[in-house]
Amino acid sequence: MKDYGWKIILAAALLAITSLAGAVEPIRIGSFLSVTGPASFLGDPELRTLQMVVKDINAKGGVKGRPLELIHYDTGGNAREALSFVKRLIQNDKVDLIIGGTTSGDSLAVIPEVEKAGIPFISLAGAVDIIEPVKKWVFKVAHTDRMAAAKIFEDLRKRGLTKVALITGDGGFDKSGREQLLKLAPEYGITFVADESYGNKDTDMTPQLTKIRSSDAEAIINFGFGQAPAIVTKNMKQLGINLPLYQSHGVASQTFIDLAGAAAEGVRLPAAALVVAEQLPSSDLQKPVLLAYKKQYEAQYGPVSTFGGHAYDGLMIAVAAMERAGDADKAKVRTEIEKTQGFIGTAGVFNMNPTDHMGLNLDAFKMVEVRNGAWKIVE
Amino acid sequence: MRRIGFFTFAVGVALLPALFPDNYFVMAVGVSAGLNAILAVGLNLLMGYAGQISLGHAAFFGMGAYTSAILTTRYACPSLIALTAGLIIAGVIAWLLARPILRLRGHYLAMATLGFGVIVHVLMVQATPWTGGPDGLNGIPPLNLLGWSVDSDLRWYAVIMAALLLAIGLSLNLVDSRIGRALRAVRGSEFAAQMLGIDTGRAKTQVFVVSALFAAFAGSLFAHQQSFVSPDSFNLTVSVELVTMVVLGGLASTYGSACGAIALTLLHEGLVVFEDYEMMIHGALLMAVMIFMPQGLFIGLSQGARRLWRLKNKASA
């Protein structure tokens, strides 16, 4: 009998706790990122940023008085895992909104599921296919590969270069970038005189570069991320190829300069303003946002990356939408995200509308060049 | 006796969604466990009964999936016809491959099948105009069975479980047939089997093709169920996972391999919450099973249960 008494008290206490917790039901933010695997250098800063910002918001009293709860799964860059985690987030964890999809493959894989379930999804990946054609529930905050291609072509046009050699890897990012470059080239009067490819795990790209050397290319574009672009850069130097080299925004970080060493000098690429935050004029709208994010991130984790910035933008856009909607109702939040206007993020100024679920324009990219081992804005 | 096992399994599978309606672990995990089980049952025919290893089984799984994906998205082909086409393609390729490849034994056979798997994976990544490259193909329509569209989780659960029961039924019948006995003879000793008048080459080819057909069938269902395919789902890791499922469940046991597939799928879902420690716990559990139940999970557990039962009877007597 004694035993029963204790049990009843315990049960009552538990009930009290759960009902108390029920009073301030948290807003559940679901996330699936490639924190491990080949895209870990993207996913890792994204997750850290989400954790940092969620903590920050909760310390300030949450959203409309409700704390945020972050539920995260690591996909390891595998699209099949991404889909099963999104199902789990929707059906088991009953999240109110999803931010994630580090790679385009991960993001594309889950679109049918989020559309079917009717839940706002903010993708952190690059491919333009994610939001074109427009999907009702899908948004995206990272620059597209098409923007990167356009930015590179603009710079080539300024320099009066038209014959270009292309060298890309076999990953999703590389292939999607290559496709956009080839598609956009005629608009800018660019012709590709070589189109070489390598495996992203290759350790030597001299054969491809030798072929490019024998072509009449005036510049080289290398679209990829990870180690491979640094190897291409080094191999070019070793072969004595003295053409202007353009990389993609996929390597816009200090890591690339460290990996490629002296060979990185003069390499140009389109990058988010975050990598050159200090060099921006003080009139720049983004500057205070960039510096604040950079300071907060670097105080906790070390060098900032533009990819973490995407997670910041995604979460802040979602939070702003929830504030406007008044609660976390999925349909209302979706409508409010779509109405995002003049939101100043790390990637640029976002102006979304029903036909544009990203809302960035080309100004969001800065053309930067490596000078003395650091990124400098090219005017 | 064997029939009883089959019916118990069928009833259990049918009762689960009634007992736990809208439960993620039944509806979503159940579907992927079911697909894996079909693959494992098929691979077990080759590995468990005929004693031939395949480290490239994900390739056949992928062929079924990509055939369905390409035909339904690019040519608006009805899903059942696409499924049949996937079966034919995988079957023909398996048949062409079987003779030269199955002459090899042991490590050499492992290497050859591994190489085959890698080649198919590279094709999926590189043949972008057809396969969509590394990002794969999107927007695959739901499976349409003569007007009945499989578009909800519950319907998928029903279809996959029916397919699994069909696969188990086929496997049980096959094993108990003339071919099944021939295969077991091949596994024991190929020379002895030849002495008994068994055309071992033919027997091995047949089982390789059947095994590939199981995989392609699962692949087609997988493509429709996920409504997207990408090369990630058919790489070497997947092939190795399939072998693990068969070995873990128990070689040469149809229920064993299904059991291994279900156990591994559930284990992955259960361990996800441990994040960084997931792989460590996963590995430790696999090692423990192999050390303490070398015949596999299914046989190990059923023997354990029998022993307990006997102990209990003795105690009460």
TrEMBL record, chain A:
Residues 26-359 form the Leucine-binding protein domain. The keyword Cell cycle does not apply. It comes from the Bacteria. GO terms for biological process: amino acid transport. Keywords: Amino-acid transport, Signal, Transport. InterPro entries: BCAA_transport, Leu-bd, Leu_Ile_Val-bd, Peripla_BP_I. SUPFAM superfamilies: Periplasmic binding protein-like I. PANTHER family: BLR7848 PROTEIN, LEUCINE-SPECIFIC-BINDING PROTEIN. Belongs to the leucine-binding protein family. This is ABC-type branched-chain amino acid transport systems, periplasmic component. It comes from Candidatus Contendobacter odensis Run_B_J11.
From TrEMBL, chain B:
GO terms for cellular component: plasma membrane. The chain crosses the membrane at residues 25-46, 53-73, 79-97, 109-127, 154-175, 243-267, 279-301. It is found in: Cell inner membrane. It is a multi-pass membrane protein. Its main location: membrane. CDD domains: TM_PBP1_LivM_like (cd06581). InterPro entries: ABC_transp_permease, LivM-like. Keywords: Cell membrane, Membrane, Transmembrane, Transmembrane helix. GO terms for molecular function: branched-chain amino acid transmembrane transporter activity. This is Inner-membrane translocator. It comes from Candidatus Contendobacter odensis Run_B_J11.
